[in-house]
Amino acid sequence: MEHHVTLTEMLDARERRALRQRELLARYQMPMVCFTMNIPGPVKNNALIRQGFELGKQYLKEQLDSLKIQPACFTETSEPTGNEAYYLIDRDYLLVKEITCGIEDIAPLGRLFDMDVLKPNGEKAERQELGLSPRPCLICGKPAAACARSRAHKVEELQEKTWDILAQAVEEEDAALAARLACRALLYEVCTTPKPGLVDREGNGSHQDMDIFTFMDSASALWPYFESCTRIGRQTASQRAGDTFGQIRFAGRRAEAAMFSATKGVNTHKGAIFSMGILCAALGRLSRDQWKCPDRVLDECKAMARGLIARDFAGLTEENAVTMGQKLYLRHQITGVRGQMEAGLPAVRDVGLPVLKEGIARGLSVNDAGCGALLALITAAADTNLIARSSLKTQQEIAGQVKKLLEKHPYPDRQALSQLDSEFVERNLSPGGSADLLAVCYLLYFLENEG
Questions:
Q1: Residues near 68 by Cβ (< 8 Å), separated by ≥ 6?
Q2: To 5 degrees, how large is the angle CA 60–CA 74–CA 124?
Q3: Could you give the CA distance from residue 272 to residue 442 in angstroms, rounded to a whole number?
Q4: Contact between 337 and 436 (Cβ < 8 Å)
Q5: What is the rounded CA–CA span in Å between residue 197 and residue 139?
Q6: pTM of whole model > 0.85?
Q7: FRET pair for 347, CA 20 to 30 Å: which of 86, 119, 427, 437?
Q8: Burial, 15: exposed, middle or buried (Cβ in 10 Å; 0-12, 13-18, 19+)?
Q9: How much is the mean pLDDT over the chain?
């Protein structure tokens, strides 16, 4: 339950903040940034406000890093009365004030930020020293101080505007991050080398119609799709998970069209559009702190895909089956990526991602750990791409062969991988479905470690 702070609590918090400022200035004798949030009403801290505060810290860090400025001291607190962050910076206070004013004036959330700059003597640096206008009111755009003094706007009106700004800014940032990491995962997958039968940095594998640049063109074209799926997930988070899945299907069809346009008709990422789109929508349905838990993300994917096989394959017969996936389902009950998604991607959860993480923990490069994860995925799920290029029997033989290799060498060396690649190319085999799952593994790894 949200805490409604009292006037006494706010006055006490203000006193504590002033004391911290004096102590830090006395100790470091350099300019300070005291960052707080300007939140009207009795609720001064909750999950959404904290997300906005974290974005403010991120913006400030980015600006300081770009100028190679390292704070001499950083400390922060989080209380029901609000979040506070203190930066001691050994630079001219006007430079520091210029940085903070740039964030306050330009960032979407800037109007909710109070990034006060204090001189070493404790005096507050003013915007007028930089020739800047007073900060505008949230509602009318006139000077905020004048509106506050005259109480020109109701608290409820200010609160509503504040929540709108927070929600929109957090949604935009989350969607951009999810899209960036999804595209990065696709690029890592294609660059992982050597991959038996697949396009990588050394060749085209068993494919004559595509190369690594085709995949780069495709991945770049899919950025808006991943961003859109994340936004749809956020906007439908209060609805049933299945409703979110229904909402992203049209976006998926548009993404396929964008892919074919970018690749001149070559299917590079159709499977990834399905799986990564669902994953991005799941991220939209979850708060940023939940992104770091792969099980939570995959559980949300599972909830979104519930009943998918029954719906997509309803009324299917040998006469009306068109795609290879439909035919495999009728003849062998192989459900492909649909079945994986409806089960919560067990091949990723139980095999691919653990192998990737274990390899990196052992000190292997991301590339070499990724190669091991790919082979493990080939053994963990019936790769419909392998079956389509050969037969179910061949796919099962390949999975058995790779399993024996992994029993001896969980992370085969380059020679063993290259030998397997030559065999796959000679037999025109390509484990494209496993490659799509490897991209999911990369995305979950990025989210857990960097998101």
A1: none
A2: 70
A3: 12
A4: yes
A5: 59
A6: yes
A7: 427
A8: exposed
A9: 94
Query: What is the rounded CA–CA span in Å between residue 226 and residue 219?
Result: 10
Q: What is the largest CA-CA distance in the chain?
A: 84
State the pLDDT at residue 451: 61
In the chain, % helix, strand, coil (3-state, to 5) comes to: 65, 5, 30
Does position 410 have pLDDT exceeding 70, yes or no?
A: yes
What's the N-to-C CA distance of the chain in angstroms? 27
Q: What are the DSSP E strand ranges found in 96-166?
A: 113-118
CA angle, 37 as apex, 33 and 38 as ends, to 5°?
Answer: 120
Amino acid type, 373: A
Q: Using an 8 Å Cβ cutoff, are 32 and 118 in contact? A: yes
Residue 60's Cβ-count burial label (10 Å; 0-12, 13-18, 19+) is buried
Cβ–Cβ contacts within 10 Å for residue 222, how many? 24
Nearest-Å Rg of the Cα atoms of the chain is 27
Beta-carbon contacts of 50 under 8 Å, excluding residues fewer than 6 positions away, are 78, 83
Crossing angle for the helix pair 432-449 and 353-361, to the nearest 10 degrees:
60
